[in-house]
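Q: Two folds, back to back.
A: First:
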Amino acid sequence: MVLKVGIAVIACLFLWTNEGSTDLLEKNCGTTKRLSRFKRVVGGQDAEIFSNPWMVILLKDLKMICGGTLITSRFVLTAANCDSPSKVRLGEYDRESSEDCSPAGCIQRSYDVDIERLISHSSFGKNLGDFKHDIALVKLTQEVEFSDSVRPICLLVNEQVGRTPTSFNLTGWGKTDGSGNGGASRILQTATLSNINLKKCIDYFGMEDLDESQICAGSSTADTCTGDSGAPLTAELIYGKIPRVFQFGIASFGAISCDGTSVYTNVTHYINWIMSTIDQN
């Protein structure tokens, strides 16, 4: 998969479990029916059918424009560069099949929920060519019910937890060919990317203003591509003796050729914004 992007607390939500060293927005976040096997892939490969129940598709006029992740029963996390989505599709795996099945089993039929409000970071897009603060929350018109195919991902509410992983998992339905040929992927794709020193992205893109609010990640064999804006960088951590998937980044921008290095919004840098925005809305 060349997975390319378009350009680029509330206390009542906390789960005070006293397990581990962080707090969770949702009790059952980051768990799956069958835990995903994080493995290196060549360009990208079909994700396991139950491995990413937090993945959503943002739609505009019933067309896919971005990816995103469910973080609570009412909110989706995505990139601010996503242009005026109207609906969110949950529980999707194979975009061209009405019934998604694999040898591991079948998932419930995907469904769409209307968007009540798109809340982009107020500082995004203020300066031409500035990709900072590329983060947004989507408030759904209704709460969604969790299941094996629809479940929230975990966020690091306490940034003191551990250290940033050396590698990430990336998932999305974006184009699998950076040459411009072909369309978006039919089946959800996954790839493993390395966490790269930010200086490499500064040199590669000639952008001196990249900072700790962003993550540089890539691989010689995989990258984000058109349609993957808003897609998550994730890693599996142990929380309360349970393996859970946490989100660290949001696909923001990269090279038009989708050739191995892209920049992602650093989610942990914006956790206070996420929590306060949920609180205010």
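A: Second:
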Amino acid sequence: MSLVVKNDSLNETNCTYFKYQAYTITYTIMFPVGFLANLAALFVFLRQTTKKTVNTVFMTNLAISDVCFSLTLPFRLIYYFKKCQWDFSDWLCRLCIYSFYMNLYTSVLFLTSLSVLRYLAVVHPILNKTLVTMRRAILGCFCIWVFVAILSLPFLISGSPHVNGKISCFEVKNKTNWKRIEPLNHVGLVFGFLIPFIIILGCYGCIIQRLFSSRILQKRRQSQHWRSVYLIIVILSTFLLCFAPYHIVRTLHLRAAVSENKEQETYLLDIVVITRCMAASNCCLNPLLYYFAGENFRTSFSRASRRMTISSLNDSIRLSRYSWSQRKRLGSQRMDTAELG
């Protein structure tokens, strides 16, 4: 009976009980994992990594994007815990929507850039030394931020509309809004998924052909080859698990909503929710990329872990010595008191 009440209460704002459950469970897990893991990665990149490389520049920007998006998840959680009631300011609603697409497409382009860098390093090592520089990497990251920021500006138009007497967020109000979103979806689909995915597949096809063209790998290059394999596995997994399902299902759902095919729209709605959760979870998968595909990151992370462990042990030893001296001093005081008595 309580379930029915919840469903009725949530449906008043076009927020189904399935959507409520899916988002609250997903964001509850994603926020601590994504925020802490990427914050730790930023600490390693900025404070512990002595040898900065071009890959480090792109990974640092990717971690910054994930941290910024993770900071908006508590507001989304509060919204769904309150049965789709938005109690914050309108600009914050717009910022949360904007940050999702900023994170989604900056992640796609940063991962694509890392794939191109690995392609140049493995297939064209001589060209890589002359073409790839820190200055160009910083400029490339800046261009990605500006490009995605400009293309995502229309999402700042959507604020917190009133639906059935409640202030909502993350909801599309009517068919007019669906028609406005559909062209944006086509732009995101082409420039934010299809073209980067084709580039990645081309790069990895050439990398795999180069890596396994000779049966016997030189020992000094084996580590580099395995890093390339790890990079391929992590990035392809992220694209196939996070980005591809969301863009495919979102396109089908928008087409059904614009054409007013209610049956297909209702059927695809829950699938859109699942794929959006999968797309948002990319911020939790990216730290795996830093660890398995970045040798400098693993070295710096291990060094930082050892320092923290040694520091903790030293603090424990000092504390135990202090406690022992305090107990010894207290015991001496008691003996002196007993002698005086």
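Q: And?
A: The beta strands are 162-163, 166-167.
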